[in-house]
Specification:
Strand 4 and strand 5 form a beta hairpin. The chain has a five-stranded mixed β-sheet, with no helix packed on it. It is mainly beta and about 120 residues long. The chain is built from one helix and nine strands; from the N terminus they run βββββββββα.
Length: about 120
């Protein structure tokens, strides 16, 4: 399966980032959590780690290119040949049980009025 590398949200008000340097080249083996590239924003300069182990199949964003948060930066191929997909949402959908509605709260019976006329 291929895993898409996306630009994560790097701060509350950060909406875009600039790729300053790729630390790996296409075709190189990468390990999960290994630094893959450096990104600069108006608030922070940081390294983006590889989300999975595999081979860096393709780089989608060149150095000095600015992209929005969530943009695909690269694709890592784990060797299975499956197409790239967003791994986290797929896992969340398959592991969460279907939500069951909460039972409706029963109304408490009202006591008969004790007022006398």
């Amino acid at each position: 399966m291929s895993v898409s590398v996306t630009l994560p949200a790097l701060g509350e008000s950060v909406t875009e980032g600039t790729v300053t340097r790729w630390l790996k080249a296409e075709g190189e083996r990468v390990e999960a959590d290994e630094p893959l590239l450096e990104v600069s924003t108006d608030k922070v300069d940081t390294e983006i780690p590889a989300p999975a182990s595999g081979v860096l199949a393709s780089i989608k964003v060149a150095e000095d290119e600015t992209v929005e948060v969530g943009a695909e930066l690269a694709v890592i191929d784990d060797g299975s040949g499956a197409p790239a997909e967003a791994e986290a949402p797929a896992q969340a959908e398959s592991t969460e049980p279907a939500a069951t509605p909460a039972p409706a709260a029963e109304e408490a019976p009202t006591a008969p009025s004790t007022e006398t006329e």
